[in-house]
Amino acid sequence: MDSKKTYEQKCRDKEEADQNVNRNTNTNNTKHMEKLNSKSQQAKQNSEEADRLYQQNVTTLGKITDEWMKEHVKACEMFEKQSVERINFLRNAVWTHLNQLSQQCVTGDELYEEVRKSLEQCDVQEDIEHFVNLRRTGDRPPASVLYENFYTGQKSANGAPPSRLPPPITRRGPLPDPTHSRADDTIYSTVQDAGYSVVQF
């Protein structure tokens, strides 16, 4: 911009000098005309030099602008490439993670279904009977303890012999149904046993 302003000013100075020469063409003052011609010639040289510098600066600026545009395009292309790689990486990572979570949900649901099927085969009455058969000590009560005299060796009971029949089994009511339990029902559980599992295979 400065070289352009200088060029335009030098051109105006040259035109003004030429006009002064033309206005004083008919003068008889030789020294004054030589002075005006000298100023005109100097103004012409200055305008030509300013024109040369102006063109040179414009050419240099054009080259610099072209180089800047090329570097700018390369930088934009590099930034675009990096953004594409970043977005693709993030998209693929999230996609893979969601696929893994989805597969875990499917696998977990399949396992839960197997447990539900096993629970459907659970019978409370069979569970109780299994525990009784596994832990019972017999179906008859133990014999009475008799008194034995140290000297005579005779044995006698300290009262009437107890009945040989097992005591009657009384229940307070039917077993609870785990599928229709209420909040105030008593919680029942079986004794842990290594040889028994409620889940049947």
Automatic annotation (TrEMBL):
Source domain of life: Eukaryota
Lineage of origin: Eukaryota, Metazoa, Chordata, Craniata, Vertebrata
Keyword terms: Coiled coil
Coiled coil among keywords: yes
Protein name, as recorded: F-BAR domain-containing protein
Annotated GO biological process: actin filament polymerization
Region of interest called Disordered, as start-end residue ranges on this chain: 1-52, 153-184
Stretches assigned to the F-BAR domain: 1-127
Biased composition (Basic and acidic residues): 1-17
GO cellular component, one term: cytoplasm
MF terms in GO: actin filament binding
Keyword Coiled coil: yes
Listed InterPro entries: AH/BAR_dom_sf, F_BAR_dom
Biased composition (Low complexity): 20-30
